[in-house]
User: What shape does this take?
Amino acid sequence: MPSSLESFLKNKDVKKIGLSLRDDFHGLHNLTTVLPGNFIDLQTYVTKFGIEDMSLQKIYAILFGKKISKRERLSNWEADVLTESQQRYAALDAWACLRIYQFLECSK
Assistant: This one.
């Protein structure tokens, strides 16, 4: 793992938002001993706002009344090079997590 990525993951000054991070951290643990810092898992965070659904697609639909596509979720993520469709999916996933967090933070 690149040292710049390790530095980013453990940097407690940078807030990082995600969904179902326990699975990601488990996979990360197989690659490095770095302990991630300042992560917010939306599955825990949204419960403070009375949202019980835990999938990104459902949380997004509850808050914004729109559906986001999750078609690429089951594609081959182990490939050396991700397809353009997989790259768009990953970007949408990250963007949706950030948008949800920002929306809920502003509604406090």
